[in-house]
Amino acid sequence: MRASGTFTVDAWEPETPYDQRDGVDLGHTTLRKTFAGDMTATSEVHMTSVVVPATQSAAYVAIERVEGTLAGRGGSFVLQHSATADSSGQSLVVTVVPDTGTGELTGLTGSLLITKDGDQHTWSLDYTLD
């Protein structure tokens, strides 16, 4: 199955980098998001990132707990993010962590695609639900 929609970033709360040396910054950011479309939900994201300020190369890993309704079914689940970016491009993989679905979302598996155009974020979730 496929679900899609948009999301907004309601809060972006970066902490002071916890490690800055050799031209590399390591940091943590907390985000809060609201999803609309086939999924109406809110989420909290805990992201750990690395940035090379001189070249703008970067990477992050994150865990995101999503709570709401997907295709009319209520519950929560957890997403795992892994991303890298450099001057040649970027890659992002976001997957549903197995066995994290609750309520009517128990058994949810899948992967999420995120695209950004200006300030507009869109998402598409390819999923199965037992």
Automatic annotation (TrEMBL):
<dbReference type="Pfam" id="PF11528">
    <property type="entry name" value="DUF3224"/>
</dbReference>
<protein>
    <recommendedName>
        <fullName>DUF3224 domain-containing protein</fullName>
    </recommendedName>
</protein>
<dbReference type="InterPro" id="IPR023159">
    <property type="entry name" value="SO1590-like_sf"/>
</dbReference>
<dbReference type="InterPro" id="IPR021607">
    <property type="entry name" value="DUF3224"/>
</dbReference>
<feature type="region of interest" description="Disordered">
    <location>
        <begin position="1"/>
        <end position="21"/>
    </location>
</feature>
